[in-house]
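can u do me a favor
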């Protein structure tokens, strides 16, 4: 019995990362913080209902079968999306309460993380890997 690892084609993940980065950048540059609702809503829908509208729309533009693209592990992307949703949500709530510094901090964190991911290094993946290493070492005691 082989267990297949769920994956997401890299172009769909990259599209989601670009939407996060651009939404955060435009929101912070213009002060239109409600733009954060775009990636926040898409992320929440993806986490709760397994339906990310950004990825679903991007899937329409794939030129090859999804299996022909470099795969990104689904569970890892869910973890990354959870981090993004928490930061975007905390940022948006902070802006709504007038806590501008905290709002900038949370949204900059997720914006920078998405840009770094676009450039090829996944901070969320690193965090999850370190956590798994820590829990494994702890289980050996």
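np, heres the sequence
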């Amino acid at each position: 019995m082989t267990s297949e690892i769920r994956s997401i084609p890299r172009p769909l993940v990259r599209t989601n990362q670009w939407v996060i980065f651009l939404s955060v950048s435009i929101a912070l540059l213009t002060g239109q913080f409600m733009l954060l609702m775009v990636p926040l809503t898409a992320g929440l829908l993806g986490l709760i209902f397994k339906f990310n509208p950004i990825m679903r729309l991007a899937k329409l533009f794939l030129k090859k079968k999804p299996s022909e693209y470099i795969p990104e592990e689904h569970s890892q992307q869910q973890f990354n999306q959870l981090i993004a949703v928490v930061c975007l949500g905390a940022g948006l709530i902070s802006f709504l309460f007038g806590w501008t510094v905290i709002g900038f901090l949370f949204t900059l964190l997720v914006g920078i993380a998405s840009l770094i991911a676009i450039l090829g290094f996944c901070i969320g993946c690193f965090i999850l890997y370190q956590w798994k290493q820590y829990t494994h070492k702890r289980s050996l005691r």
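The chain has a mean pLDDT of 95. hope that helps!!
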